[in-house]
Amino acid sequence: MIKILIVDDEIQIIRLLGQYLESKGYDVFTATNGVEAIREAQAIEPDVVLLDHIMPGMGGIEVLKAIKEFRPETVVIMLTAVIDESMIQATLASGADDFITKPFNLGDVDASISKQLGSKQA
């Protein structure tokens, strides 16, 4: 079963994504901050991380770099409410596989996960 780690400081987003992805058959794990996300990623070795870009304390880019350092094969999809071309380029340059802007469509999240997993297996 594909393991997905959802990282966001907004509980509503975690619940929404978690319920949706579980209904699609994914094994879902959650974290509400960067430190917890890294610890969880080391423990469960997720296939996919849905990672909020802006969080209090450790930001998404720092978490992204840490996860890619010990688990480069993990797909990391950034979630962001900030639509800024330079931020998007920095995120992708830091190792993100994709990014989705908030508010998002759940179908777009599912499509991105499927596309990224498909390209990793190809």
Per-chain topology:
Elements: E1 3-7, H1 11-23, E2 27-31, H2 34-44, E3 48-52, H3 60-70, E4 75-80, H4 85-93, E5 98-101, H5 106-121
Helix pairs in contact: 2-3
What do you see in this structure?
With 122 residues, the chain is of the alpha/beta class. The protein has helices at 11-23, 34-44, 60-70, 85-93, 106-121; strands at residues 3-7, 27-31, 48-52, 75-80, 98-101. The relative contact order is 0.17. Helix 2 (34-44) packs parallel to helix 3 (60-70). The longest helix has 16 residues, at 106-121. The mean pLDDT is 93. The radius of gyration is 13 Å and the shape is globular. The chain has five helices and five strands; from the N terminus they run E-H-E-H-E-H-E-H-E-H. It has a single domain (3-121), classed as Rossmann fold, CATH 3.40.50.
